[in-house]
Design brief:
five-stranded antiparallel beta sheet; Beta-Lactamase; binds magnesium ion
């Protein structure tokens, strides 16, 4: 039997299949071939069941058998959800209605099919996604927070609840802001608004270290990854959070950051010590050279074999001091030649990351930290790692200072002086202030009032700030407590973006 052709059916949007009384395909239109991935003539003569997933094929043949045994076509004509099977074996959701046609030449069945893939997400898939999301939220080790476009919390995972000390019930429906300390609390809405407006991604897809605030008001460092999704056409943001106070060091990006800081710090320490040493040794060495030179001149006027031998020795001594001098000069050149990689960087971000790192462990001492960051997010022209090191040192000093003190508060502030072209980061603590015995020797290496202190922190910080063309000031406040401020140049408008 040849295949029948009805071109007009090919114009139909729905799939149309005509089978004979035994369910063998006699005719399909173009929509069916498109839907299932067959070419012309391939389906004719085969069972309708090949177009259905095995489970549905079985159901279909039962229906079909039933229909055949019945005189009336009652069982037919009902549109059912089924799963279609394409030629390549993949499945898709399908709606199928079957009708019996009687003709002189026998019984026929007409099937009308519609691919409903696009309709599924709205109903079934959403339920599935929700189910999946629920299990993810309750079991994931990372904290997961889902917010909508207005930063209203939609889901709050078990791990997030433990991290922040909130009950999911009490926090869902509230603004995400309450999980952050000031100034982020007041700025966050603007960040989202800016993103929605400009589409510029400042945090989405980028892992960042930020500061969170627990229900009891304490703050802690965390690593944050933000994703964007559009379930059911609505925009949502998902935050994956990791509490850095808990995480094993080796798992982290933090480790890299700390390693880089440590490296810079060692290099700087060695650099500083060697450079001081070179300077100190150079002076006596120069004196030795002068003295030997003078002795040689005196000996030049003395006759005799002994004197000639002594002159020879002195000449060798002079040559050796010259050599020592050269070595030292090279060493100093090497150390001062050390390169900085300066870029245009966001000072607030530097400060935030470095503080978060320095604060690890501070929570145990119940230290309250406030951020008071310049809202314009100043760009500075610096070596990021080195400035982070300065901030870490200053914050560490502040933490150490307030530890044994009843009032344990630290304020970390940034500000801009446009006129001077500088930005400033200040760390202010409510500790005892500077000890009188430290006084003027604050920036000298190895001056420390702490049992474990190296007395290197501030000297390194000052060195770094001066290398940046900036300054470091530390002073006792009249109200008790200490303020340490590092000043650095602002980046020019056309400096390269450091991101
Ligand atoms: N915020 C502060 N409050 C009170 N004293 C401070 C403060 N910052 C620094 N000091 C004093 O200055 C000294 C030198 O500080 P510096 O950071 O150079 O060394 P350190 O903290 O003692 O040791 P290191 O930083 O090498 O571990 C400290 O020992 C301390 O006496
Ligand atoms: Mg220190």
């Amino acid at each position: 039997m040849g295949t029948m052709q009805y071109p007009v059916l090919d114009a139909a949007f729905d799939g149309i299949i005509l089978t004979d009384g035994d369910g063998n395909i006699r005719l399909v239109n173009a929509a069916v071939r498109r839907m299932f991935g067959y070419s012309a003539g391939e389906l004719e003569g085969r069972e309708l069941g090949v177009l259905l997933a095995p489970r549905d094929a079985a159901t279909y043949s039962r229906t079909f058998a039933g229909a055949r045994s019945m005189q009336a076509a009652d069982a037919l004509g009902i549109s059912r959800q089924m799963t279609g099977r394409r030629r390549d074996g993949t499945h898709f959701p399908l709606e199928m209605a079957l009708t019996e046609l009687s003709a002189d030449s026998g019984r026929f069945f007409l099937a009308i099919l519609r691919d409903v893939t696009d309709r599924i997400p709205a109903e079934v898939a959403l339920a599935e996604t929700e189910e999946w999301l629920r299990s993810l939220l309750s079991t994931a080790p990372d904290g997961i927070i889902v917010i909508d476009e207005h930063a209203i919390i939609q889901s709050f995972s078990g791990a997030a609840a433990r991290m922040f000390g909130y009950d999911p019930q009490e926090i869902i429906g509230k603004s995400l802001n309450i999980l952050m300390p000031e100034p982020y609390r007041s700025q966050h809405d603007r960040y989202i608004a800016r993103y929605l407006e400009t589409g510029e991604r400042h945090i989405i897809g980028i892992s960042r270290i930020v500061v969170g605030q627990r229900a009891d008001g304490t703050i802690f460092p965390l690593e944050l990854n933000v994703g964007e999704m559009f379930p059911g056409g609505k925009r949502m943001f998902t935050g994956f959070l990791r509490d850095l106070t808990e995480v094993q060091r080796k798992e982290l990006r933090l480790q890299d950051l700390q390693a880089a800081l440590l490296h810079a710090s060692r290099f700087s320490t060695v650099g500083r010590m060697s450079s001081t040493l070179a300077h100190e040794i150079n002076q006596p060495l120069a004196a030795v050279a002068n003295y030997t030179q003078a002795a040689l001149q005196i000996l030049q006027r003395v006759e005799g074999k002994e004197a000639a031998r002594a002159r020879e020795i002195l000449e060798k001594a002079i040559a050796q001091t010259a050599r020592a001098g050269n070595i030292i000069r090279h060493l100093r050149e090497f150390l001062t030649r050390r390169e900085m990689t300066r870029r245009s960087e966001d000072l607030n971000q530097i400060v935030q990351e470095a503080s978060a790192l320095a604060l690890i462990g501070a929570g145990e001492h119940d230290v309250r930290v406030h951020f008071d960051l310049e809202p314009t997010a100043p760009k500075v022209w610096v070596d990021k790692v080195q400035i982070q090191q300065v901030v870490m040192n200053l914050v560490s000093n502040a933490i150490e200072a307030v530890q044994a003190w009843p009032k344990r508060e630290i304020t970390i502030a940034t500000e801009v002086d446009k006129q001077q072209g500088v930005a400033k980061v200040c760390v202010i603590d409510t500790g005892p202030g500077l000890a009188p015995e430290v006084g003027a020797r604050l920036f000298q290496p190895f001056v420390s009032t702490k049992p474990q202190g190296m007395g290197l922190g501030l000297s390194i910080c000052r060195e770094i700030m001066e290398a940046h063309g900036g300054q470091l000031h530390v002073e006792t406040l009249p109200t008790s407590g200490t303020r340490a401020c590092a000043t650095m140049p602002l980046a020019e408008e056309d400096d390269d973006a450091g991101e």
